[in-house]
Amino acid sequence: MFSYRHAYHAGNHADVLKHFVQVQLHQYMNQKDVAYTYIDTHSGAGVYALDSAQAVKSGEYLEGIARLWERDDLPAALADYVKLVRGMNPSGRLRYYPGSPYVAEQVARPEDRLRLFELHPADTRLLVENFRKLEAHKAEQGERARGRRILIDHADGFQGLKSLLPPPSRRALVLIDPPYEVKLDYKHVRDALEEALGRFPSGIYAVWYPVLQRMESRQFADRLKRLPAKEWLHVTLTVATPGPDGTGMHSSGMFILNPPYTLEATLRETMPYLVQVLGQDSGATFRIEKGTQVSGTASPRTLDTGPRKPIGNARRASPLSGAGSLRLPGQPFGDGPRKRPGQGEAEGSAAPAAAPAKKRTPGFRYADQAKQATAPARGPKRKAPGRG
Asked: Does 177 qualify as catalytic in the annotation?
């Protein structure tokens, strides 16, 4: 159950697709003044070292982020994503890669909430430690830390999602990307989305999945199209022709329910470039579809670029893997009584925004906080809401 570790795959072509789309979703959510909640059901470690043993062994990042690292002709959407990765590597050498929690932390605004779930115990500990370091660094620099607006929970994200919807501000971005180690993950994703849409139909739900030869993967998108969302947008990226044995992941997809109206145009501009730069043979291509629940119609938008034109050799920088996950078994779920919109902006921050930063333990919470001997007292604890 816990054999999957994303450190082996960090920065590969699937991560490029997933995280560049995630950046676009956050930027769209940031356009409104009202804060929103970002929910990550399978957070992983949060940050990955591309020179780690796992990343070096697989070398998958060399066919992904490394091919974009030194390019100067990136489309705008890809440039925003690569800029974020470069911010983690100030030396100019590609050594670290962000997981989806770090992408959210960097692109979401300080007032937005992050609710991060991870079930793997080792990755949970890494996730917590990474965010502790990040929050401490912000405090030292006098920057406004997110503090209690981050909650990391060592728990099943499928179950945790139920208790967070609808969010206090009635705005949410949900990312669901389990490892799909077991076939039941496909069913769990669909069931979780169906229940989430029943609780909060207006949220933006983004699902990443591998496009494989197994039946569950081939039928997955069609099943998501039948969910009760007003609109959906589906994009896949294929970088190579699948082998005759059907092994290996050569293609992946992002399926977005209630997508931003701007996203399709962004994808149509960006995906041909990704095919050209990341494609490994003549089988490299992409596909875009969109549809509505009311009409049940779909409008496929497909482009096959044919043989990939050489674009120059991607510099094979030294191992840059990002081994990352930053979470720890920690504290009670939830963050105190929820406020209705209009009741004020304060959300339990440790200090007013205008006050000078103090050197202290960051205020964000972890699952099983009672087990953390060094955690400062926060007053009476509130019972965790039910998981049903």
From this structure: yes
